[in-house]
Amino acid sequence: DGGITQSPKYLFRKEGQNVTLSCEQNLNHDAMYWYRQDPGQGLRLIYYSQIVNDFQKGDIAEGYSVSREKKESFPLTVTSAQKNPTAFYLCASNREWGQGNTGELFFGEGSRLTVL
Amino acid sequence: AQKVTQAQTEISVVEKEDVTLDCVYETRDTTYYLFWYKQPPSGELVFLIRRNSFDEQNEISGRYSWNFQKSTSSFNFTITASQVVDSAVYFCALTDRDDKIIFGKGTRLHILP
How far apart are alpha carbons A90 and A40 in whole angstroms? Predict the structure, then answer.
């Protein structure tokens, strides 16, 4: 079945360590997104990519990095510079985009990161 | 700047009651899209509806209905005859010409048996 796979589902990290969250999609979507969800904060956009080898910062990009070397993959690295990394991270892809003509987002099941 | 406000943080209703979730948005764009998503306890967000800024017709899908009013910048969501399975967090979202999708903070809905 087509969809978005995020891994790992749960991750523990010590302070000062970088960690990479995986996001893979087999929907042949061009656009992919990373969101962070905190209790009471809703979803906040970290980074998004509309095409391979290109990505843009969202509202809370500091302390994060991404790459988009392949259409189906959009990994997120949470670096040691991120001051409060404990959160639920959601990856999404978009079937259509362009000049505001944005379709529905398809979401993965999320990755819960806890910093010890 | 784009903004989505869901003023209701948490709502509890008894099963079979109707419930309306409010969504107010801000945008300077004339072309935009509005969305509603449902997040059940499993965590994965599920798409419910998309509405573009030029289509103000209300929509009904089974027990779900949406009221889009540009005059008040609102896109409210009503569940009729609520069921326990409707318990979830519901998010309203807005997209702009840059294809950024901005979410509200969500409304946690509890349907009590």
Answer: 16
